[in-house]
Amino acid sequence: MPSVSETNKFKLFNDPIYGFISLPSERIFDLVEHPYFQRLRRISQLGLSSLVYPGANHTRFHHALGAMHLMLKAIQVLRRKGIEITASEEESAQIAILLHDIGHGPFSHALEQTLLDDVHHETVSRMIMERLNVHFDGALDEAIAIFEGRHPKRFLHELISSQLDMDRMDYLKRDAFYTGVIEGAINSDRLLEMLHVSEGHLVLEHKAIASIEKFLISRSLMYWQVYMHKTVLSAESMLVEVLRRASMLARRGDALFAGAELQILLRRRPDQKDFNQEPELLDLFTRLDDSDILSAIKQWQQHPDPVLSAMSRRIVDRKLFRIKFLDRPLSREDRATLEASVAASLGLSAEDSRHFVLDGVASNKTYTADKQEIKLLKKNGSVLPLTEVSEILPLGVYSQVTTRPFVCWPKELPWIH
């Protein structure tokens, strides 16, 4: 006969953001216990941001539980306001938000387009959810419909994916807490209490406008202070380049230390067609986490390839590249000058020196006014878009995309000008 400890599926998590988070059903308990979900304990929420903010070691596991907790609170608020949400829809919405990031690979967004060929993490999340649905005998049908926006109650999907969803609400509050960037803190309780539904869509009561604008300001500040911090951009650009170099070496048959899963992904970089034709690739991907990458990079410090070993040592020792934001994308002439300087100073060939000059574009749009706009519900029942009733932020904030081209290169070398 099984013991109480083997059958008891009540569980509490002591979360530093919200206090105790409980798992509200046996099905959710079983999903959290599944190896696919437990892997999120080993996927960092903020990639390499801990190299700048030492406290930023929280994981996708933390975030998923927090977003699920906020989903329950949002549903409770809507029910108090007369919105009908069945017990089945409540559980399904919580499952959908719990699993929304389950497809993230190692270091979250940093390596999203490096190990796989143009397969977005949301696509992988859908594949994993479908796999879990088979395992749970179709019990996730409704959750998947909500996740994909096919459920007739559209507002349930908007609680998962919109300009003011539970995903963003948790990660902004959580990331601000763990990084110590207090400017990013938001008042999630106030925002949740202002939620409502009008004509089937999620809206917020008009009196929440100041809290909404504070939310947008916090989001913008977090982008440039955390998500697009110069040093984080440099570190993650270097990480991507290390994996690209390792992939090149693996494809040409060079011996390369890596776990079995990483070896296959480096050699193949599977695309959507590969996943469709070879279901076992999904299981392979879900066995991969941050530790696979870190252990490989530690060993690659001694690899005979001068690019792989030098770049790996710099990441492990935190000898990161200097980064400079530019007025326009790096020109071909400036890149050639930097590469020549790298080749001469580090004793590298012209071909190898290209891996030590990394350029890209950081961009941020605080608000997308032409898609999923936040709607405000006035006392007279009318609904207006945020852009028409904004009281604090200038209208330019709602349409302006901030882009910053950048270039990274070894810190010991001077800038070309």
In summary, what is this structure?
The protein has 417 residues and is of the alpha+beta class. The chain has 20 helices and 9 strands.
According to CATH, the fold-level topology of the largest domain is: Hypothetical protein af1432
Instruction: Enumerate how many helices there are, as a single number.
Output: 20
Radius of gyration: 23 Å
Number of domains: 2
On the 0-100 scale, what is the average pLDDT? 92
Describe this structure in words.
The structure is a single chain. This protein is an alpha+beta fold and 417 residues long. The protein folds into two domains: 8-227 and 369-400, Orthogonal Bundle (Hypothetical protein af1432), CATH 1.10.3210.10; 230-363, Up-down Bundle (Growth Hormone, Chain: A), CATH 1.20.1250. 49% of the residues lie in helices and 10% in strands. The strands form three sheets. A four-stranded mixed β-sheet has the order 3-4-7-8. Strands 5-9-6 form a three-stranded antiparallel β-sheet, covered by helices on one side. A two-stranded antiparallel ribbon has the order 1-2. A hairpin with a 5-residue loop joins strand 7 and strand 8. Helix 9 packs across helix 11 (209-227), helix 12 (230-251) packs across helix 13 and helix 12 packs antiparallel against helix 17 (306-316). 41% of the residues are buried.
